[in-house]
Amino acid sequence: MQITGYAPQNCHLSSREMARIALNARLLVANRLEGIGWFTYECFRRIIAEHPEHEFRLLFDRPPHPEFDWGEHATSVRLWPPARRPFLYDWWFDRSVARELKNWRADIFVSTDGMLSRRTSIPQLTVFHDLNFMHHPEWMPAKEAQYYRTRFPEFAELASRIVTVSEFSKADIVQQFGIPSSKIDVVYNAPSSVYRPSTQSESLKAAKEFTGGHPYFIFVGSLHPRKNMKGLLDAFRLYRNAGGKNHLLIVGEHMWKGKEVEVDAVHFVGRLDRNQLPLAMAGSEGLVFVPWFEGFGVPMVEAFASGVPVVASNATAMPEVCSGAAAYLVDPGNPHQIAESMMGLERDLACRTDAIERGLSRAQDFSWDRSAASLWNSMEHLLQQ
Description:
Blueprint: E1 20-24, H1 35-50, E2 55-60, E3 74-78, H2 86-104, E4 108-111, E5 124-128, H3 132-135, H4 142-158, E6 161-164, H5 167-177, E7 184-186, H6 200-211, E8 216-220, H7 229-241, E9 247-251, E10 266-270, H8 276-282, E11 286-289, H9 298-305, E12 310-313, H10 318-322, E13 328-330, H11 335-347, H12 349-363, H13 368-384
Parallel strand pairs: 1-2, 1-4, 2-3, 4-5, 5-6, 6-7, 8-9, 8-11, 9-10, 11-12, 12-13
């Protein structure tokens, strides 16, 4: 790729001038994308495709996969070392990234995992997905929690602009870090286009594949303490003891150390690929998603788009994201209430039908095209300041 022009650092650029935009691609790992990784993937590939007038450089900490080769005006580089531990985060961002930004003469740096370089003077945009580590550090390994609680206040001050994924998280950033709300933009997550309602034969196929033919509720997410797995399983036991017929399919891997527990009619299937997960979601009788804390809660909008009724927590960002479309909003600390909502989904056909219709309508409010355009607006704000 030939660089045809250069815009000096820290200057005012119009939207028509070529800019050099560096992108943190650390979480773009083929076949291993998680929530932040999907946000990065869906937004970056659209932004790069829509803006061939600019040069983009994706910064990886491992060999870039060909899946993330997004055009002649987007180059990829691998920077040492692999930044997968707290003591390596600082090295990667403060040394390797800072050096690359200087050598490439980048105009801005965009980091969707919240972390920034403290050794560069160029404008930086960061995405804070939530601040759960400020509220509940006990949910993380001690070294991870210490890093996040120490560095993220620095990153909030250092950032030229902050993006977050809900109004709840925006208010939390303002409160926790004292950042002016005018410095923070909200860019929602969205469901992929692969999520859609299933046919009856597809639902039967999903049940046969995942639960031996039994109808099932589904949970999707990393098996992390904040996801309230104990509360979910306690509620499911109560539901089954009361005569509930559905099984429970749990999709996700442990974020840190952990193990599954043996519970009757519960199926742990680990990670499902991009073809299997939409089938599992659309084939379910309902998503039961009752975390303690979420900055957004992507599985809820994936369920809405799949024509699947949702039971969600009445905490943090989840009521905002549901906006009246959930079949039930429940107290995540009340397993009896969660169990009753499961029974309601099983036995109350009118409630199910109404929730499905409201969910399909709510899903139309989310689009990765709109999200990418909103993130680009925030990036352009830096280019023009």
